[in-house]
Structures
1.
Amino acid sequence: MSRLPSTSGPRRTIVAALALGYGAFLAFVVFWPSPIDQPVEGLLDRAISELHERGVPQFVDYAFIESFANILLFVPVGFLLGMMVSLRWWPVALLLGPALSAGIEVAQRELLEARYATIEDVVANSIGATIGVFLAVIIRAVVKARDQKVIERHEAIKRSVAAV
């Protein structure tokens, strides 16, 4: 019985390329010497005030937006980690996102005087990474189930042709 070709090689190559690209972007953002939003701080304050005047709830403030941005920043991190590890080892990816975030915060605290390292950032980043891991696991599980059906159908066709 012949085996169907694996798709792991191309997937790993694509994920590695995306991880390198996103890793470079993330390094740029997190190791910028001053807070990345500092040049547009006044604009952000005005935009938030405008949003409040237009009915957006008051809890949507700078801290909320910053926290939400941190979550969004780490969703791709978790997704890529979830795509890199073996499907059976996906829980390990859940630990890698928070570990990476904590490492980044420690590096910011030690290396960049103008940056602020906070536990809130680690929590927000970890939430984003966890969402990303779960997205990757769901996608991989759906693809695996689909592939299993395709393989079963292929084997059934082969058996029916051989029986004739």
2.
Amino acid sequence: MSKVAFELPTAHALHDGQHNWLASAAGLARASEEYAHIYFLGSGERLIGGWRLSDGLANAVSFNTPLILRHGLLIGARQLALAHNHPSGDPRPSIADIELTRQLVRGCHALALQLVDHVILSRTGDYSMKLAGQL
């Protein structure tokens, strides 16, 4: 996992139906390789930070759940949002995507944090695990 911080827009809130700003902020939908980003949210779902979790993998994402959760707690996050892209154009989650999300949800619950969504972005559309009832 790359622990590289990246610039995030300030004072944005993450709400249902407002996932397009994630794509534009990170450029994930147009990327030719698979990337994953985690967003840390404070009170009022205010964006307080983020990390690029994986760099340019061919067709998979991977991350260290305990490291993400520890960082979130250290910076005072109350919620997390995960976003990654599918360069193939198919935004549906893979079995691995679903399992990684479940691991993150379990870790969040153990620490009184909340994963508000895992959004998969592609050139042809977006997929919200929250809206699909998978969180």
